[in-house]
Amino acid sequence: MEYPCRFQNPSATTQEIIPHRVFAPLCLKGACQETLLQLVPPCLSAAHRVLGTHPFSRLDILIVPGNFPSLGMASPHIIFLSQSVLTGNSHLCGTRLCHEIAHAWFGLAIGARDWTEEWLSEGFATHLEDVFWAKAQQLDPHEAQEQQELKACLRWCRLQDEVRNSPEEMQVLRALPSDIFLVSLARKKLTQGRFQDQILHLTF
Ligand SMILES: [Zn+2]
To answer: What sequence ranges are listed for the domain Peptidase M1 membrane alanine aminopeptidase (predicted)?
Structure first.
């Protein structure tokens, strides 16, 4: 599917926060209102301050069950977030949201040719999640650098553990058939429905 390019559109260049909606089961309405909905505007605004024009004109965030294979996934106009990020403090939710927002530029506007190059998109999104999140939290440069270095150290330890403990064929990024099916199903539901509230119930 083709999406119109917004980078040459003068009204899009100044739009810090694109229109957004959150879709979640009713039982998570409170958690979404307390955590996620507060974080979307500062994270979108931080992304705009760093990278400029948002590549897509609107954003729907769909909360998926905790057994979803990852904490998040980005697709044009849709971010899938695991309900697991809604628990605890806002740090996990904020960083994951920033990561998926970054994929609008790296992974969607510009994408890898195939899964062998997907690590490039992941690398940019992982770096930018720290940059966006530091801005969204309004950290001073010294605090931002400290947080970034700590996270880099934790990621390095985790990567070493994963490489050590995973068989070689599991160390390659690839699409799961269940992810592809879920994206097409969610697209259908979101484009066919008429939603009056920001939150609604979806049956998984
Ligand atoms: Zn990613």
So the answer is: 53-141
Inter-CA distances, 118 with 109, 159, 175, 179, Å: 13, 16, 10, 15
Q: In the chain, what are the helix, strand and coil shares in percent, each to the nearest 5? A: 55, 10, 35
Q: What is the pLDDT along the chain (204 residues), one digit of tens a residue?
A: 777 889 888 889 999 999 999 999 999 999 999 999 999 999 999 999 999 999 999 999 999 999 888 899 999 999 999 999 998 889 999 999 999 999 999 999 988 887 788 889 999 999 999 999 999 999 999 999 999 899 999 999 998 998 899 888 877 777 666 666 666 767 666 666 544 333 433 333
Distance 73 CA to ligand 1 centre (A): 7
- The CATH code that applies to domain 15-166 is 1.10.390.10
Q: Which of 100, 117, 118, 143 is catalytic?
A: 100
> Is residue 2 annotated as part of the catalytic site, yes or no?
no
Q: Is the ipTM of this complex over 0.85?
A: yes
CA of 100 relative to ligand 1 center, distance in Å: 6
> How far away, in angstroms, is 196 Cα from ligand 1 center?
30
| Residue spans per domain, the chain | 15-166
Distance 23 CA to ligand 1 centre (A): 20
